[in-house]
Amino acid sequence: MKAQVLFSGGKDSSLSAILLDPFFDVELVTCSFSILPVGEVAKVAADELGYSHRVLELDRGILESALDIIIDDGYPRNAINHIHKTVIETLAKEDDVSLIADGVRRDDRVPKLTDAEVRSIEDRFGVSYICPLHGYGRSAVNLLVGRYLVIEEGQSDSIAKADYETELRELIRQQYGDEKVLEIFPEHVQSRVIRRV
Amino acid sequence: MKAQVLFSGGKDSSLSAILLDPFFDVELVTCSFSILPVGEVAKVAADELGYSHRVLELDRGILESALDIIIDDGYPRNAINHIHKTVIETLAKEDDVSLIADGVRRDDRVPKLTDAEVRSIEDRFGVSYICPLHGYGRSAVNLLVGRYLVIEEGQSDSIAKADYETELRELIRQQYGDEKVLEIFPEHVQSRVIRRV
Known about the structure:
2 copies of one chain form a homodimer. By secondary structure, chain A is of the alpha/beta class. Helix content of chain A is 48%, strand content 20%. Chain A has one domain (2-196): 3-Layer(aba) Sandwich (Rossmann fold), CATH 3.40.50. In chain A, helix 5 links the parallel strand 4 (99-101) and strand 5. In chain A, helix 1 crosses helix 6, helix 4 packs parallel to helix 5 (115-125) and helix 7 crosses helix 8. The interface between A and B is medium-sized, with 25 and 25 residues. Chains A, B: It comes from Methanococcoides vulcani. Chains A, B: This is Asparagine synthetase domain-containing protein.
């Protein structure tokens, strides 16, 4: 059975794919709002991992709604969760999708669906939504990353990633300038997969 | 690296072991308070799965504390969680244990450690605690169980299991009689692994 794994090119989504690989036919899916070439960035990492990969092109209006939310809030949580929920619903509506996975881990706060949102998506669309790392803490993730991946880590603005934040930051930059990006997004270490061990 | 997987002989702990198998050296661990031969019951299922198995003999005092809690409360949650936490701490103290896993899944309420309890155990004992099924809902679990396991399901009192409840029910029965068991434990479908597919 095929598992669609939401893929940013970072360590968590990569490790989620590796954990599912023995049990499912993994297909990596990267979302893009066509603001930046995030699909191409993710494709490089996907090729290194050796999994098939596709780009899910999404309506730019979703990102613009998220922009309204984030400017209103002054912090990213609700905007990122809005994108995440919309992405999973979009994927769940596709005809041949029955299992969607993402890299959310135990200690993550964002993006994260509520239990009610997960149940609603599973019931409405007849899909299973799984988070292979949800029961893994930092030490267990680091252990597996060290064993299976070579990664590069750095501040968000210095790492070429394909997560929701990347294009959202760029949209804020285009419309409100660099200072607004720095004001809204706290310093945050991101990872990018260089290759598989 | 070895993973100690808490094992009741049911589908969730069996499936957790199967999910970890490609990445860790799985050892199944069944707790016993020497009230019933739960270690032997679990050993039969472990042999069917093909994993090494050991019985962790625990002080009967732990079960007696749980009995006090359950009689006081009139419902099982706190008593079962008390046993679960004590079992994980006992295992975490062992010299050669660095990774402990159990079969808790997304929709489980009991037994379940709080986030603070998990962090405390990981910090104090230098272990990683993981729940491979924590990000899996009912439909995904059923899918994998159907593919990898043949199970028997039935009400708790008709299924030979090796979970905490089994010996706790027996202790209640011995000290307070059958009616008290029925009063405290709601009807609940349990599973037992018959063999691996």
